[in-house]
Amino acid sequence: MICVSIGRGRHRHVIAEHRHLTEQGIKLVELRLDYIQGTVQLQRLLKDRPGPVIVTCRRSADGGKWEHSEEQRMVLLRTAIVEGADYVDLEDDVAAKVPRYGATKRIISHHDFAKTPADLTHLHRRMVEMDADIVKIATMANHPLDNLRMLELVQSSRVPTVGVCMGEIGVPTRILTGRAGAPFTYATFNEDRVLAPGQIGWQQMRDVYRYDTLTRATKIYGVVADPVAHSLSPVVHNAALAAAGIDAVYLPFRVPAEQIDEFLSHARRWPLAGLSVTIPHKEAVLKHSNRHDDLVKWIGAANTLSFGADGIAAFNSDATAAIESLEATLAEQESQAAPGGFGVKTAIVLGAGGAARAVAFALRQRGVEVTVASRTLERARKISGDVNCKAVDWAHRYRVPYDCIVNATPVGMHPNVNETPYDKQHLKSYMVVFDTVYNPENTLLVKEARSIGCKIVTGVDMFVRQAAIQHRIWHGVEPPTDVMREALKQATASAKQRG
Ligand code: NAP
């Protein structure tokens, strides 16, 4: 079950949001009394409530907004019990002061905004003894393994326990706590108005992660990156899983560079079935895999891991996706390619990171003469040595014209949408312009190239193709690419709206 936290300053807004959520099928809400401005009118909130509520009034020390005295807070919580609130949330240090009364259930809660304590089991045992109907523990995750300790606690508890980790690293626990046995998870009414670090919106929880359908049998996939909050991979892969009717969920795992080895060493504890890998882990993951496809070997980086009984297999779907995107677009746009040939003879790849390496490799495989231009010339030189192409300094990218310009830098990516890595004055109408940036699809480079008649390949096409290859690797079935493309377009459009 998803419990939506409502934190509004005015009673009428709280009531309206509760009604709306009930109409949308939400069966439990948390009324955050500490958000209400002025005197709290409990009866007004509880009298005609459309569904069960948890009454919570958080002090600032626990992440709340309560500005009045502790005595007034205690009176409010006791009154909520007398008024027959369905649940009341009592912090573990005050729970003993508020006795059980009537049918109101007691949620004993503990918050730690700095860390996830080393001894969670001891903390939990102490809270269970406080006449708890439900134990709630919310702690800051500083390490991906904090998630695992929290989920294992929830799973082993005999008293219903909602265990979540806060912050971007802790997001997986919010989505998996029910799978581990928690009676509910917390989500926010509006994803732009979070009440605790790392909280996600209820619609995302219900529609993207399909929280209520997750069981112990549900397989766990995800993207491992740092940062990960803006990744659109969860939207695209979860849409594909839902459309294909596969019992699996795809999560955002924020894993800092120095913690990737430990994260992968504990993969079986989740257990992880597959991962997309992105910045900064594409090379570091290789030492954990015992099988590579040829592309991984040649490119020296993986963007896909598949976990099996016989170890971890590594793949690189970027190179194949890049070349498929180019070929499909050129075929569609009636390229001058000779039958069986490839319309592009010379190409410049802007950037020298993982994407540039994959694209340069793929183009070389098709016999294209490739030049890599990079701010850090050393990185371009490394690629040129590995895939047998040229390397030039960033400032020299306009020296000669090329048939194909590939942007493999983040220049032009949201929110820096007014930037381009290649000035319009140097574009020629015969060029193929391939921008790997997918958010937005129509970057400034794409718009300027289109305006002078260049052939265009977009990052959206490449992104959907690389995700589709991953889907095939993990699930062994043809992916619903139209659904994936649509999910990506909707997600980039709503990211644009939110600014
Ligand atoms: P990466 O390994 O971090 O490499 C980024 C490259 O861009 C580096 O060479 C970096 O140069 C260069 N760069 C960054 N900012 C720059 C600037 N302002 N001016 C000039 N060069 C700059 O990242 P990656 O994994 O290769 O990804 C690069 C981009 O490719 C991403 O932003 C993403 O949009 C795109 N991508 C798309 C797909 C897809 O499916 N569509 C897949 C993968 C990647 P330095 O080394 O000097 O920092």
Q: Overview of this structure, please?
A:
Helix content is 34%, strand content 21%. The chain is of the alpha/beta class. It folds into three domains: 2-213, TIM Barrel, CATH 3.20.20.70; 237-316 and 463-498, 3-Layer(aba) Sandwich (Rossmann fold); 320-457, Rossmann fold (3-Layer(aba) Sandwich), CATH 3.40.50. The chain has an eight-stranded parallel beta sheet with strand order 7-6-5-4-3-2-1-8. It has a six-stranded mixed beta sheet with strand order 10-9-11-13-14-12. NADP nicotinamide-adenine-dinucleotide phosphate binds next to helix 11, helix 12 and helix 15.
Mind describing the biggest β-sheet? Answer: 8 strands, parallel
Strand content: 15-25%
Shape: elongated
Q: Evaluate the radius of gyration.
A: 26 Å
Note the gap between the termini.
Answer: 31 Å
Strand elements, count = 20
Bound molecules: NADP nicotinamide-adenine-dinucleotide phosphate
Number of helices: 16
How many structurally independent domains? 3
Strand order of the largest sheet: 7-6-5-4-3-2-1-8
Q: What's the level 1 CATH class of the largest domain? A: Alpha Beta
What class would the helix/strand composition place it in? alpha/beta
Average pLDDT, to the nearest integer? Answer: 94
Helix content: 25-40%
- From the 3D structure, determine the CATH topology of the largest domain: TIM Barrel
Low-confidence segments, given as residue ranges, are none
Provide the CATH architecture of the largest domain.
Answer: Alpha-Beta Barrel
What would CATH call the homologous superfamily of the largest domain? Aldolase class I
